[in-house]
Amino acid sequence: MERSEYDLVIIGAGPAGLTAAIYAARSRLSVVVLEKAAPGGQILVTDWVENYPGFPEGISGADLMMQISEQAARQGAEVVTEEVTGLELGNGIKTVRLGDTEISAKAVILATGATPQKLGVPGEDQYYGQGVSTCATCDAPFFKDQVVAAVGGGDTAVKESLYLTRFVKKVYLIHRRDELRATRILQERAFANEKIEILWDSHLTEVKGGDPGVQSISVKNAKTGQETEIPVDGCFIWVGVSPTTGFLQGLVELDERGFIRVNERMQTSVPGVYAAGDVRTTPLRQVVTAVGDAAIAASEAADYIAANF
Questions:
Q1: SS3 string of 118-175?
Q2: pTM score, whole prediction
């Protein structure tokens, strides 16, 4: 079996992983970033990013990640497109397996991200990034004075729908039950907001559109069976996110939803193992918070290596 050694292995090449690579390489660590797909993560499907500092006119998700990737490469970080098939995260040297290859490292940063859960309805994938979104903070300004739909009934769905009302003319909040699951104070705010109309006992069954994007949705009432087509300019879906942590079961401490628990230094339950970005338990999942996590994680990893090896 082929073997190689690095100071630091970073798993995941999204904003968190690549930022960690920049900071680690600048600390003169030998670093490799492992990514099973294309570097960039979820932001690659984000049409336009307007809330990342330094780009007053905005930047496409793909272009932002290209620039971060180039910066990591210029600092000497190596990016390898391989899927991790096994991990050994003891208190000493860590081992990362990639098929027939093993990598030894003094520290590991987990930056594997999280994926928004999908409804699986027609049009959802087709119009993702063209009117279908999972991030009001990212995309609400694009729908100023327009009509949008939102799907979900938990804290995130209600909180994000309230945020949307700062920009849009109307929000149809679609919920499959006859009461919301969100905390009472959020419910009260939603009920009091004249821009929000809740469609109870209802399911989104299809997203329809054309050029340039979403034009309407189909909604079915679970009790009556009646299906209605509603003209909208956008559709926000908040039915949860799933962390990419299946391969970490039993290796590091996870919360009840599967996200990695860390402290303020991004340290996991295992010495020398850190987590950054959407994969960790965090109140906000944005590019700017991911890169902040990554800077801390890389700095802590460098200190750990200096103190222990």
A1: CCCCCCCCCCECCCEECCHHHHHHHHCCCEEEEECCCHHHHHHHHHHCCCCCEEEEEC
A2: 0.77
